[in-house]
Amino acid sequence: MKKFIALILSAIALTGCSASADAPGRSQGSGAYSSSPAAAPQITVSVPDGATAEPPDTPLRISATKGTLVSVQVAPSGTQASGAHVAVSGTLDAGRRNWTPGRSLSPATTYTVHVTAAGSDGQRTTTRTKFTTATPSRTNRALLGPLDNQVVGVGMPVTLRFDHPVINKAAVEKQLSVTTAPTTEGSWGWVRDPHTGQERVDWRPAGYWRPGTKVTVKAALSGIDTGGGRYLPRDISTTFAIGTTRIARIDLDAHRMVVTENGRTVRNIPVSGGGPETPTHNGTMVVMDKVTEIRMNSETVGLGDAYNMMVKWAVHLTTSGTYVHAAPWNSALIGNTNASHGCIGMNTGDARWFYSRTQPGDIVITTGSAGAGLSVGNGLGDWNLTYKEWKKRSAV
Could you confirm whether 325 is annotated as catalytic? Predict the structure, then answer.
């Protein structure tokens, strides 16, 4: 009986040994390993899970080893997913092993990172982490123009004005895009207003805009360090359209302003420009804005107590204080003599007509004055440079 049991146990042991030839990882019938099981893919996120106070310009990187990246999502958490807090898109390298963000992170934002990677055998690994970016102690704010859905004249540049000077100009400019229909050649250029000290970057076409052009501007600025740890807090954008080609040509030798619309003369107006001591700027100006009535005080432009009065039908041309406006007190001089403090004065009826026709972005070209040429930063003076000169003001 003992011999019989021993024979049965021996047969069971031999049976178990022969079954291992079909086990995973072995070649059938040989009993030897042909390959090892594929390892699960591993995911690395450069910012640790739970990190706080990360700088917005942290170099976020995501990579996979022993596999490839299938999907990467980096997005604000919860209610922060709107306004200044935006999702972060990125690109994969050719091997789909490394992901690089296409933009900076937003300040004071909690991000959720959700990544999936796949191994060569289809095995998948998913990682979910969270981190929070710092609240900057210093910020820079930007104002983008023209306004959304505004219709402007053919001379209006895109303007992006900053509260504080920008040191990292290239970093800012690389986040700006202009899309036009029809396609329009143009360039960004940096300028500083000599009167306000404000710095801005403008985009102007190679030549005046074509009427009817649609323009979309996107500035992905949230989290950009403009220099010295002064961060921009949000993305901004605008869409606007180009209206009539309206150009006012002022000849101060002849004391006349000729207004054309789409190449056709619509009004020939007598004017009076700046006198010998306060001459009007020569050059190309762009209408900035207009008001039906404004108080003009000579102290604001460094001329002491020369004047302090309410002025009607005022069209604003420069930050140094140049306007086209009604000047009934100079009626005897209009059309004959230049005697203003630098503005272009005209009779009230003509001033009202010009005010009613003109819009921001219209062109006003002044010649024949004894004054100096208009500086590029004084108002929207971008057109006083050739396009070749203008392009040299780009930081990239």
Answer: yes
